[in-house]
Request: fold
Amino acid sequence: MPNIETRRLDLIPASEEALRGELTGMAALAAALRCEVPSSWPPDLYDTDAVNYSLNWLLAHPSDAAWSFYYIVRRGGTNGRPLLVGAGGFKGPADEHGVVEVGYSIVKDHQRLGYATEAVEGWLRFAFASPDVKMVIGQTLPHLIASIGVLEKLGFTFAG
Reply:
């Protein structure tokens, strides 16, 4: 499955190798993704339970892998190597109403640089290219002001 490319980022679909590598350690994750993994990895609200969930979902739904988890990798990091800056993606393919949900998280030392906005724009472009998708939703916690700002900037409206 191909990456989703944006101006600065590669949104790399999770593979079994990368997810198992992440469970093994950062060196294995870096090798699987062929990128640098910052010492600040993982981002907030992304933990071992989330990795295991993504791995189990991927193994159970291999044909829907494009509608699952992605690694957010910035091309051409400080040393020229790609740099892992976040995680996110979809929570499965469109439901019977044509709705998909998107989520994302950026590591602390790379927040407020537009990476979340750029990644979500890439996923929106991908989602709306599918005839099955009629609406994309995003949920966040009330105290995550920056995340709310990303959604609002991209045209999402508060639904309660």
The beta strands are 4-5, 9-13, 69-74, 83-90, 99-106, 135-138.
